[in-house]
Amino acid sequence: MKVIGYFFEIIKGLSITAKHFFVNLFYNALRFYGLYKGEKGSVTIQYPEQRKTLSPRLRAMHRLLRREDGSPRCVACFLCATVCPSECIKIVAGEYPDKPIQKYPISFEIDIGKCCWCGFCVEACPEDAIRMDNHYLDFTSYTRKELILDLKKLMEK
Amino acid sequence: MVIVLIKSLVAIGWLLLFTVLLTWAERKESAVIQDRLGANRADILGIRLFGLFQPIADAIKMIFKEDFSPPFSRKFFYTIAPFLSFFFASISIITIPFGSPIKIGNQEISLQVVDLDVGILFILSMAAMGIWGVILGGWSSNNKYGLLGGMRATAQLISYEIPLAISYVGLLMVFTSLKISEIVSRQGELMFGFLPKWGIFLQPIGFIVFLISAIAETKRIPFDLPEGESEIIGFFTEYSGMKFGMFMLTDFIETLMVSVLITTFFFGGYGVPYLYSDGFHFPWGSSISLPNWVVVILHVISFHIKVVFWAWFLLLVRWTLPRFRYDQLMDLGWKFLIPLGVLNLIITGFVFSMVKI
Q1: ipTM, 2 decimals?
Q2: What are the residue ranges spanned by the domains of chain B?
């Protein structure tokens, strides 16, 4: 007798999956012929061609900000390099001969392979020169060397 | 002789083509059921065709993988097991009629490779022989998990052979023949003047017994205890490359064969209701006469529609139900299906001795 109870449950389950099948097939067919532009039918995002819009509040990848004349806002104070728990920031400081701001970074490297995304560098920065946001997320590479981001890469918008 | 050769090549080609399409269909159907898109990246020169080239990519990957056999295995049986499994799963296709006989000149060619007098027994025994591949594969790879999986598979398949055979007996009582062509042509007749004599109408209980035990014979979820890819590890643990691929294809061939058998035995085979060899004759008196070749094409199309529907249904079952526990599996087989099958035989005997259909 128990088995007969199973039987109805199985039919219920089959009807649920069949309903999903036909409804999704209908929307997929409409989308294929260009009659429907919504999101019903499948939740898949075709990644390299189609990307999800990330929240502007996402704090992911480091970015160095510029001054109005295009030079880096960083004054090479080494606070971020000091506070960094994984010691992945390397700065070489240089000196302006004429400007009131004396120092600037000749090179500023972040080793993404070591970074743990704690955000301490952003908190430590007195000049608001380093921030984390969502501007650049494809940083996979075949070598560890490519994971070291330099000044140019960090400053590009 | 030449005709039989051509027919067998066509039958094998048909089986392999539809098996390959079934692997694609399984990917796509599961994806659509689960609100996904499914494999659609394999392309030839940028043409993707909904991922229809995915089976080709799979085949290339399988063939070029290392053909590894473990050093502690029994090489001969280890190698022959997937071939046995594959062969016995696919051999039954030769007895299946794909359509009514086609007339070319004076010759009449049946769309069936051989019309065996022992058709049903042949199909049943070949399905039973398929167990050899499984148990040999499990035992000869000399692996504890493989052996246990093979033992589970043997116990399950032999248990479910019995209800399967009993449901065949019900068909025998109704159609009084072992010949497949005879059974299919009997299903074209009408009872009560309007209802086709399909197996589903004559043997509804037998159909349920057949369906459940045939799904169990395919060794797929809900009855996938022999394999249990993710947790309990089955008989093909040690297999890799194309040998594993043959075991995997065997499952798909069995699924296809089950849908072919359901079509042939319970849904009128190639038959279309009210369509006879000279055209439609409807029960309300009107009739449309058609030439022979149109009738044959309609029959072949009807066969394919039924087979595709049942293949779709079996995939739906596979992507809906969870796996049985082992004691539930044995309970279902021995305590439910076998008594139900015997009850079906008794009811069939009573009804057919009382009523002349």
Answers
A1: 0.87
A2: 68-354
